[in-house]
Amino acid sequence: PEIPFHSPATSLPYKVWQAVILDLFGARKGEKD
């Protein structure tokens, strides 16, 4: 899997980075809903 954009977080394991993304998206969705 690749990161769609360059970021310091790319140094983290992909699973960790994905978990962070999902957490952020989930938090934003929860706020909006």
* Helix vs. strand class: mainly alpha
Gyration radius, rounded: 11 Å
Number of helices, where a helix is a run of at least 4 consecutive DSSP H or I residues = 1
Rounded average pLDDT: 71
The amount of beta strand, in percent, is under 5%
First and last CA, distance: 30 Å
What is the total tally of β strands?
0
Q: In terms of per-residue confidence, which ranges show pLDDT below 50 for 5 or more consecutive residues?
A: none
The main sheet comes to: none
Helical percentage: 55-70%
- Which shape, going by the Cα principal axes? elongated
| Element string (H = helix, E = strand) | H
Q: Which short descriptors sum up this protein?
A:
mainly alpha, about 35 residues, single chain, 1 helix, elongated, about 60% helix
